Amino acid sequence: MKFMKLGSRPDTFYTAESVRSVSSEVSSDLIIQVKGSRYLLHKFPLLSKCLRLQRLCSESPESSQHQIVQLPDFPGGVEAFEICAKFCYGITITLSAYNIVSARCAAEYLQMTEDVEKGNLIYKIEVFFNSCLLHGWRDSIVTLQSTKAFPLWSEDLGITSRCIEAIASKVLTHPSKVSLSHSYSRRGRDDISCNGTESQRHKPATKGWWAEDMAELSIDLYWRTMIAIKSGVKIPSNLIGEALKLYASRWLPKVSSKDVYINKQEASEDSDSDSSNEVTSKHRLLLESIISLLPADKEAVSCSFLLKLLKAANILGASSSSKIELARRVAIQLEEATLNDLLIPSVSYSNDTLYDVDIVMTILEQFMLQGQSPPTSPPRSKLGYERRRSRSAENINFELQESRRSSSASHGSKLKVAKLVDRYLQEIARDVNLHLSKFITLAESIPDFSRLDHDDLYRAIDIYLKAHPDLNKSERKRLCRILDCRKLSMEVCMHAAKNELLPLRVVVQVLFFEQARAAMAGGKVTELPSNIKALLAGHNIDPSRPPPPLSTASTIAAEDQWSMSGLRSPKSKLSSTLRMKLAEDDLDESDLQSEGGISRTSKFKAFCALPTRPKRMFSKFLSSNRNPSEKN
Q1: Helix count and strand count (H, E) for the chain
Q2: Rounded Cα–Cα distance for residues 515 and 446 (Å)
Q3: What protein family does this chain belong to (predicted)?
Q4: Is residue 157 within 8 Å of residue 108, measured between CB atoms?
């Protein structure tokens, strides 16, 4: 750190009976009061350099012995006043980055200009500031920090703007050409080795060497400095992102889900806490300032950092525009997120859910909007023929490869996001206050092709059913309609076949596709698995004895009388068993109509009923149960 000494006389100031004075053979004739402190001084050395004191003394009446001058609004207080007073007496003073701002404001207040006396204090401070402090990195940082105590004076004197310009220019300059002045980041690297030499001194500084020191600035000064840096020469966006991450980790509060719950309880009891509101407002301003500084490039910051900012925005009650901007940024790189990143605590007082599901749904909506796959071939136009003639075949092939690679990346990100959403569903399904509609909406926000299997989705549904035992039959059916039994693995099918929480129709579908898969894999099915037999026996169904034929004349409840076409001539033991199971399931026709209309009803019947003429994928399975005479 650089410093400058002015004056040569020793310090002769002393305190007697709460009055500061200076040792001199000449009796004092001037009393100056500065913010409650009294100084007993001499007119000659002070008035010869301070134009304001000359004017004040000429305006105030003289007493018999001392003339009194009041300075109630003196910038910098008694410390800054003593610097100016000692300079007038020729006593040695030391100026550095820590006190130069207060001394400069005090000298300006006393009007210690060149018009009063050549080589006055303002001139000497300006020379030291411009020629020394602004050339050092650490000196510029400390000087800029000290302007916070005198914001208006520093702005009017141009101290703040000059410090910001100096810092920005150094950030944009190679660190080897910058005088670090033993900055914080430099000291961290200058460790002493065993033989007493500074082993790290000659190692080059990293690209982000400036971030640690700038993190010491208050948010308003930091924001202005970052704007100056971003408006200068092009700087890598990832360096800006790393600097913002460091600043946020230092100043933003670390709040957990437990803390959010406690804060909600305290807020409900005492909503008029001025101190807590003040702290929250301060952190909210800091957060929104960081969000406004985020670079536009995707690789500038990680998705995890963006979601941490979103959690903080949720907790601190940031503006809707800030939350939407963060949600949009998260959606762009959602495939990088983890489950813990998405578990954003809910701070809404209108519901008691543990996590904020609405903000995650907003992120998924943004993800689906921006995740449209590009075309796999270049777009055609009226001049396409002429353009193709003017371009080489290599260029066309390159464009095709690039577009397909981009399309593949988009599809791959959707597959990752689908797995992430299913794991998120498993976590929030444990919340007893989570509404069924939100769970279903979130599950259906992922397109069907993004889920290669439904194992994780099944686990989420199973967890939700266990956490919400009060669901009625209609709600359980509505929940299970998002499940595709054809995409369940064998292990999950075995679990689902014994799951008493599932609607009976879902169990039948699982059994059907398990048998179909076994037939396609083995070529024939000789006997039902033991778990299926146990399930059917639990419902008083004997798979070894064919049931009576089902028809519209059978005595079936009105609510279960839905079409039996395609089930009149059974060819296998499994077909009759499945039809009996479907007949026992009291699925309301109105329930199907309300959810999907006639098209959904017919689709569901065709899905569950075995047709008279089996499709090709089941022909092998059905033929395996026929005897040789039937095959001929």
Answers
A1: 30, 7
A2: 28
A3: Belongs to the NPH3 family.
A4: yes
Cα 614 to Cα 612: distance, rounded to the nearest angstrom: 6
Residue 148 carries which side chain, given as an amino acid letter? K
Confidence of residue 182 (pLDDT cuts 50, 70, 90): very low
**Does residue 60 contact residue 23 with C-beta atoms inside 8 Å?**
no
**∠ CA 56-58-60, rounded to 5°:** 65
Q: Within 10 A of 73 (CB to CB), how many other CB atoms are there?
A: 8
Angle at 395 (CA atoms; ends 394, 398), nearest 5 degrees: 85
Structure tokens belonging to residue 46: 């002070």
The model's pTM: 0.73
Decide: 199 and 230 in contact? Cβ < 8 Å: no
Answer with the residue of higher pLDDT: 181 or 432.
432
Residues in the chain: 632
Whether 121 contacts 111, CB under 8 Å: no
Based on the number of CB atoms within 10 Å of its own CB, is 468 exposed (0-12), middle (13-18) or buried (19 or more)?
A: buried
Residues 6+ apart with CB under 8 A from 219: 251, 285, 286, 289
The span from the CA of 402 to the CA of 4, in Å, is 62
What single letter denotes the amino acid at residue 505? R
Torsion of CA 464, 466, 470, 476, to 10 degrees: 50
The DSSP secondary structure of 12-63, one letter per residue, reads -EEEETTEEEE--SSPP-EEEEETTEEEEE-HHHHHTT-HHHHHHHHHSPP-
User: For all residues of the chain together, what is the average pLDDT?
Assistant: 77
- CA atoms of 215 and 250, how far apart (whole Å): 8
- Which of the pair, 626 or 22, is modelled with greater confidence? 22
The whole-angstrom separation of Cα 138 and Cα 229 is 17
Contact 167, 141 (CB under 8 A): yes
Instruction: Give the separation between CA 137 and CA 223, rounded to whole angstroms.
Output: 18
CA distance 69 to 254: 51
What b/e readout covers 265-275, taking b as 16+ CB neighbours within 10 angstroms? Answer: eeeeeeeeeee
Q: How confident is the model at residue 128 (pLDDT cuts 50, 70, 90)?
A: very high
What average pLDDT does the segment 135-164 reach? 96
Q: Give the whole-angstrom CA distance, residue 553 versus residue 169.
A: 91
Q: Give the tens place of pLDDT for each residue, 460-485.
A: 999 999 999 999 999 999 999 999 99
